[in-house]
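Example record

The entry below shows one chain as it appears in the dataset: sequence first, then structure tokens.
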Amino acid sequence: MPLLYYWKPENYRRDREFGFGLHLNQNSPTMCRTGPGDSLWAFTRRRDGLYVLAAHLIVRGVTHNVPNYRYGKYRVWGDKGASRYFDVDRSPNAEMVLRSLSPTTRAQFLGQSFQGAAAVRELTQADYDLLLQVAADLPVLEIAAFYPEDELEARLVYGAPISTAEIARDASERTRYLYERLQRPRCRELVRQLQELYQGKCQICLYSPRDTYRLDVCHAHHIIWVSRGGEDELRNMCLICPNHHAAVHTDDAIFDYAGLEFRFGNGLIERALKSSS
């Protein structure tokens, strides 16, 4: 089922500043009425007061976030290859189109019709077709390149240097966030804590290299990738073996905190066991 979401201007500007992460978080349970292959359209209000289309996410899945997550209970994951973020600064006024859609929008200011539980609204097929037509020629933003997450994690943990040439490759605020704000010593301490919490065992397959080799071979994985705005904190990390780590990154697997499970593109679901301590 296609959905329409009002991206509050302050939230939009924050997310754009740090680089879009191909997902949206919200508290509305309406998010759960969409599924793989469906569309989530987002609009926002520019500084000049005009309402414009901001994004068209092709849904990969919908999951629960970690309890009490400050940006919302639910997360829609967008398909990297098919989703689009529009250049709102060069996009035309879309208010008349948005008000012509099936969701009721009687408030004087359009955004007021998308507050609280009504922030996410269901769309009809006719609504979807109209938005698709309107968005066909909209200017599209280049999404900030995602730093290879497995390499980023390794550099955070082992402190490998990052060259100025690599930083110059993408001068966006997202790059500055990744390279300047993350604290490598803190990250390495979190990895140490994670290894001790699970005695070096993979949380998925229970592979235990400590028992066999007396070595910590399993990797600390950021569940919501750091390059997509995930927090560098223990509750956003899990300990998984190198094989599972490679599979999760290669497949861009979805993680649902409700069941503590990874969802792979072929339909396979694997649960990450939680420590009893």
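Notes for this example: The chain has nine helices and twelve strands. The longest strand covers residues 51-64.
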